[in-house]
Amino acid sequence: xxxxxxxxxxxxxxxxxxxxxxxxxxxxxxxxxxxxxxxxxxxxxxxxxxxxxxxxxxxxxxxxxxxxxxxxxxxxxxxxxxxxxxxxxxxxxxxxxxxxxxxxxxxxxxxxxxxxxxxxxxxxxxxxxxxxxxxx
Length: 136
Fold this sequence. Notes:
Structural class: alpha+beta
Helix content: 10-25%
CATH topology: Lipocalin
Largest sheet: 8 strands, antiparallel, barrel
């Protein structure tokens, strides 16, 4: 074989080796799939008080509608409020719950375990922390 016939062969072998190496990347380098939002999520909301904290059960039910994701939130003893303004950006989720006290703005992230954890704000002030997981 002469040098002219070896060069294309070497180039092809290099290309194949690079392609194989690129395909053999560990799964940790791939972005993790985010959990589906649609469904019923339940957990707790923790409200800090001056000398203690109050832990309440909460349930968020997200539904897919023609105009996007909406739903309802439920806190025993407090009632139900509609969920609106749902915005999902990667692992971050923001949504609003309308209550008699006002608009509760939720800002959370999805955890590695699939849970959703974040803050509840009223009039731009934090009023509670919440953590929920989807019901299976």
